[in-house]
Give the backbone structure.
Amino acid sequence: MTVKPRDLPGKTRRRLAVELIGERESIDRKIKTGDKEIEALVLERDSTLMDLFGIAAASAVRLLVDVGDIHRLPTVTGSRPGTAPHP
């Protein structure tokens, strides 16, 4: 369905709507590209955070940035890195 207004206000509204739709599509493409890049960064770190329910790439990268390298934390033999109890 194509709307072709005949008066100036209608033509202006239609032009603005078309521009906004185009901008929205451009933003959606940028978001998808950014999401793919973020996911690649998380996978590059061999993180399994995204395997957890409710943790998407954006949340995983935020956790990785906030926590940093967990290998800097103490470990107990046989446990996962960074899971040792504090003395």
The mean pLDDT is 84.
